[in-house]
Amino acid sequence: MSRLAIKGGEAVCRLENWPRWPMFDKAEEDQLIETLRSHNWGGYPSPNTKAREFAAAFAKYQDAAYGVCCANGSLTMDAALRAAGVKAGDEVIVPTYTWLATAGCAVFTNAVPVFVDINPDDYTIDVNLVEAAITPRSRFVIPVHLGSSIADLDRLKEICKKHDLILIEDCAHAHGAKWRGKGVGSHGDFGSFSFQSSKLMTAGEGGMILTSNKEYEEKLQSVVNCGRKEWGYDSFEGRVFGNNYRISDLQAAVLLGQMSRLEKVTLMRQDAAAYLTEELGKIEGISTLKRDERATTKAHYQYVFRYNPEGFKGLHRDRFLEALMAEGVVLDGDFYEPIQARDIFSPPLDQFPMLKDRYPNGITAEVAHTPVAHKAAYHEALWMHYPYLMKGREGVDTIIAAIRKIQENVDELL
């Protein structure tokens, strides 16, 4: 009789035994009820009461001077580009191994994304390739703090200062993370956070832009609020062309409730992840990403590690993932694919003509050579969503048991 659950054996655990996400408690309930009873739910006036309170609290937690709430974590980067004065044809250097919005914000502001590969050690943007990609049209760099890793902010700040580029940190995965003891999102000119439903903090949707530049903060407030200049953000010269990117006070109320336990759950995940790293290191065919000691607090939106089929008698990663899911542990392989290789990222040139000079045939898989990202996406990377870390070391032991079970009985799959 087969031992593996995918072949009819008993599973290591049941999917319903893992923590559900999103999590909530009385903190969110109290904030929501207070907002509900206030009859003041909207994004206007902007920033509204809860949005203003949450923006100040989150900015302080991440060590930035100012925070501006936004409708989602895609529009945050769009707003940052607009506040910084993006012009048609400006080049925006982005990693290819991330969600589409990191490059999409450039397209939607008439700028041009330039795709570079990732570092094989931690899957963040390869800083050496960033410098090599700079041209006279380069204006912005958007690194992504990916999964559990933080991009090399030291080198990125040096490069941006040397070449007079604006640094926008994509922190969609990094709520609570710190680099050299200082919150991510406060190292660059802007820091972009997402509160989409899968994120470490969530109100279903929502976003936040951090900055410590007062003029940028005022322009961000104006961009988000349809281009209005109102008291508190009316001292900059001229106007910006904005749109309605506002967050509602109901969303901000939920996020205020989640602020109360951000530090506690961050440290809980960090402890479980350290134990998981130790245990995975004992399994042949599994390796973990490099830990950078300058990342003094890691957020662990996704715990990402690597699969080598040689440790599993040549079994393909995707078949391994199918077997693991049957054992009650659901991980992703192609959680991200190289942006330029995705059908969903195909902006038409007749709508976005500024792309034509660099991409005369449109953005296709051939426009950038990114072998590290391709290997990660289709052969190597294993992405584990953070609720698996919320059961602490007990949950880690279950994950390790499932992986070992597959390895010990891999012949059933060959």
Topology, element by element:
Blueprint (H helix, E strand, L loop, with lengths): L25 H13 L10 H13 L4 E5 L4 H9 L7 E5 L5 H8 L3 E5 L10 H6 L5 E4 L11 H11 L2 E5 L7 E2 L2 E2 L6 E5 L12 E5 L2 H11 L24 H11 L2 H19 L5 E3 L13 E6 L9 H10 L44 H10 E5 L6 H17 L6
Helix pairs in contact: 1-8, 2-8, 3-4, 3-7, 9-12
Describe the structure.
The structure is a single chain. The protein is α/β, with parallel strands linked by helices and 414 residues long. Helices cover 33% and strands 13% of the residues. It contains 12 helices and 12 strands. It has helices at 26-38, 49-61, 75-83, 101-108, 127-132, 153-163, 214-224, 249-259, 262-280, 317-326, 371-380, 392-408, and strands spanning 66-70, 91-95, 112-116, 138-141, 166-170, 178-179, 182-183, 190-194, 207-211, 286-288, 302-307, 381-385. The strands form 3 sheets. Strands 1-9-8-5-4-2-3 form a 7-stranded mixed beta sheet, sandwiched between helices. Strands 10-11-12 form a 3-stranded antiparallel beta sheet. β6 and β7 (182-183) form a beta hairpin. α2 (49-61) runs parallel beside α8 (249-259). It is globular, with a radius of gyration of 22 Å. The two termini are 16 Å apart. The model has no long low-confidence stretch (mean pLDDT 97).
List the strand order in the largest sheet: 1-9-8-5-4-2-3
Radius of gyration: 22 Å
Mean pLDDT: 97
For the secondary structure, the number of strands is: 12
Number of helices: 12
Distance between the termini: 16 Å
Q: In percent terms, what proportion of residues is strand? A: 5-15%
Largest sheet: 7 strands, mixed
Order of helices and strands: HHEHEHEHEHEEEEEHHHEEHHEH
Low confidence ranges = none
Silhouette:
globular
How helical, in percent, are the residues?
25-40%
